[in-house]
Design goal:
single chain; mainly alpha; rod-shaped
């Protein structure tokens, strides 16, 4: 069941934004390093890559970092949503358990 944005509090929105921002930073760094390694390999191996302009090489590098930031931000945001739903489910289960304990406790008092 999807969570509607109107149900979220400001704190929940801030937590989701923080999770996505951390994911974007980590993803941009990871994919940036991978793009850099590929750029070094391309420079050493490929005459086609060597003949590209510096502007196009920067574009390729930034494209990899943008893609990585996007993928990791989405992954972290989905993980946060999963955690949030699991917490809500756990709280509901605790409430049901407390209600059962209260009902059982009342039943024992009536018998005794």
């Amino acid at each position: 069941m999807p969570i509607l944005l109107s149900r979220r509090t400001t704190e929940e929105q801030s937590a989701a934004n923080s999770a996505a921002l951390r994911g974007a930073a980590v993803g941009a760094a990871k994919y940036g390093i991978a793009s850099l390694v590929l750029a070094v390999v391309g420079t050493l191996v490929s005459p086609v890559y060597r003949n590209l302009t510096i502007q196009f090489k920067v574009f390729i590098q930034m494209s990899g970092m943008t893609l990585g930031g996007w993928i990791e931000a989405d992954r972290k945001l989905r993980g946060y949503e999963f955690w949030r739903l699991a917490e809500a489910r756990r709280k509901r289960d605790e409430d049901v358990w407390r209600e059962w304990e209260r009902m059982v406790g009342e039943g024992k008092k009536d018998e005794g």
